[in-house]
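Quick board copy: two proteins, each given as sequence then tokens.
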Amino acid sequence: MSTQEPLSGVDAAWLRMDEPTNLMTITAVLVLEDPMDVATLKELLRERFLGFTRFRQRIRDPDGSPYWELDPHFDLDRHVHRSALPGEAGRTELKARVSELMS
């Protein structure tokens, strides 16, 4: 794969729609039946996701022609965070916490 790959039309559209008041982000919330420590989760992500180049790339747009390139400083720790709610918290508190993290 080339070190620079042009964005697809869809990716370019998402990039152009991204604004401070309209963040085009993707968030995942994992609700697990059995507990999993963060180290195990990160190892699974390394094994199953990071083999795909796209998950280790960033977008560059120096002159209005955006492209994907490998992120030389990619660090999974910047993307995976553990957040705990109090024991009695429910779906409402979870939604509020996710909203807080995304704002």
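And the next:
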Amino acid sequence: MAGSVSPATGRAYGVARVCAVWGVPRSSFYLARQAAQGLAPARPTGRRGPKPAVPDTALRAAIRADLARSPWSGEGHRKVWARLRVRDGLRIARKRVLRLMRENALLSPHRARPRPADDHDRKIITDAPNVMWAIDGTQVATVRNSKVWLFATVEHWNAEALGWHVSKRGTRREALQAMGMAVRQQFGHLGRDAARGVQLRHDHGSCFMAEDFQNQTRA
């Protein structure tokens, strides 16, 4: 490339300068040029770095011998690794034993634990209003780079927000404000039996699990 001339400028540019402009390592350029000329060296297929004291071939044979002398069938790599260290005195890494056993199909077969059928589509839609409500709270960022709490009470029948409350704190008192707004809007008052029979869903947040909130929503 040092002798190549750019057709646009009529000037010659070196390899280092061109690779720096394109953000390509010079080693990659030379490797690509060798490949184009059919001179690219073969990549090593073995592991990189320093060679282990026990090569893979010897360790593979030791693993097979350990499995053959074991009275049990289908043992995991941890037991094999432990026996090789204690009985055979091989100072080897557990993950290396796992890799070789996996590559040579020597791992014990296992079945995934069956999961129970889950037909729930994560949607709850009631047949009528005021059967089930949900309440939740989240923090919302403001234009002044601060955060406020937003509590909302939602109707499961049509996903309408029946009550809400915005505040700087996110305690049970603020959550009750959103609940009170929904009760007042739907039933006209906050009497003891105003929302009797309405089910309420919420998570296990501290504001909802507080004794005061539980007592108020049960009343």
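Board note added afterward: Strands lie at 132-141, 147-155, 161-167, 199-201.
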